[in-house]
């Protein structure tokens, strides 16, 4: 374990890949590894990139990686792809799109399936980003699955959230109503060489005047064309400006505190769920469920009995309950 953690911190690509696989598959030693890596996180610039399908997110990420490498920055990419509800598989196509960087030792690309998790990200994305952060990458780019207008989980993983729009992508007002627009720190009008790009930019600016007129940070609207490598410098300047704002205003500390609070609650909830799943197999609680099925106990009393018993004896799970969920 110590050797693997040390290799990750040294930037060993095979060790980084193995660590992320442990995270994705729920390896028994996953938590022990993450505990060793956590003190070495917090340095990387985390940028989330989201938007509707067809907005050109993957192409934009591909070109942005090249732009950052030309500046001498090391880059890791976590690209999340949808998992089929029928086969359970995922077409991890972003690694195919980014073949130009496959042999670059300063770039690490990992595709992850959502595995049924909503919100545009895999459940393991946060931990994977921490592994890459601990590995010493300067920038970690997180690309969401892009299944609609509800991928807001990225704001809890990234320091800066980029929302990608395109000409012909629908009414901007409707997009603002959908929720994803409210999480943007930067707007990108991609495919800006197409007709209508300036109109989309003007619509976003008008909506920002309406909904964010008194906000301390006004999201800039940047036009890019991934196919022509246009606007990448302006996009990265906007990311850099937002990071400076986070540091100077104290908003970055507030966001990190909120992220840690959510992480602790999520980890605690996951562990409680695991404990509850084990508890339900114990004879006292199995009998309690039979009473619920027979109508002798209502589900609310049974749930209270289960939680109370787990809290009283979290390890041994020896409490027994009568027909109304009272200890006997």
Distance between the termini: 45 Å
Question: What is the string of helix and strand elements?
Answer: HHHEHEHEHEEHEHEHHHH
Question: Compute the gyration radius: what is it?
Answer: 23 Å
Could you tell me the mean pLDDT? 81
Corresponding CATH superfamily of one domain: P-loop containing nucleotide triphosphate hydrolases
Beta percentage is 5-15%
Q: How would you write the strand order of the largest sheet?
A: 3-2-4-1-5-6-7
Low-confidence stretches: 83-91, 115-120, 316-328
CATH topology of one domain: Rossmann fold
Number of strands: 7
- Helix count from the secondary structure assignment: 12
Outline = globular
CATH class term of one domain: Alpha Beta
InterPro entries: GTPase/Isobutyryl-CoA_mutase (IPR052040), GTPase_ArgK (IPR005129), P-loop_NTPase (IPR027417)
Pfam families: MeaB
GO molecular function: GTP binding; GTPase activity
Keywords: Chaperone, GTP-binding, Hydrolase, Nucleotide-binding
List the topology elements.
Elements: H1 2-9, H2 13-25, H3 30-37, E1 45-51, H4 57-70, E2 75-81, H5 94-97, E3 107-113, H6 125-134, E4 139-143, E5 160-165, H7 172-177, E6 186-189, H8 197-211, E7 221-223, H9 232-249, H10 251-279, H11 283-294, H12 299-312
Parallel strand pairs: 1-4, 1-5, 2-3, 2-4, 5-6, 6-7
Q: How would you describe the overall organization of this protein?
A:
GO terms for molecular function: GTP binding; GTPase activity. It comes from Calditerricola satsumensis. InterPro entries: GTPase/Isobutyryl-CoA_mutase (IPR052040), GTPase_ArgK (IPR005129), P-loop_NTPase (IPR027417). The protein has 328 residues and is α/β, with parallel strands linked by helices. It has a domain of 209 residues: P-loop containing nucleotide triphosphate hydrolases (Rossmann fold). The protein has twelve helices and seven strands. Strands 3-2-4-1-5-6-7 form a seven-stranded parallel β-sheet, sandwiched between helices. Helix 1 crosses helix 2, helix 1 crosses helix 3 and helix 2 runs antiparallel to helix 6. It starts with a helix and ends in a 16-residue tail after the last helix. The C terminus is likely disordered.
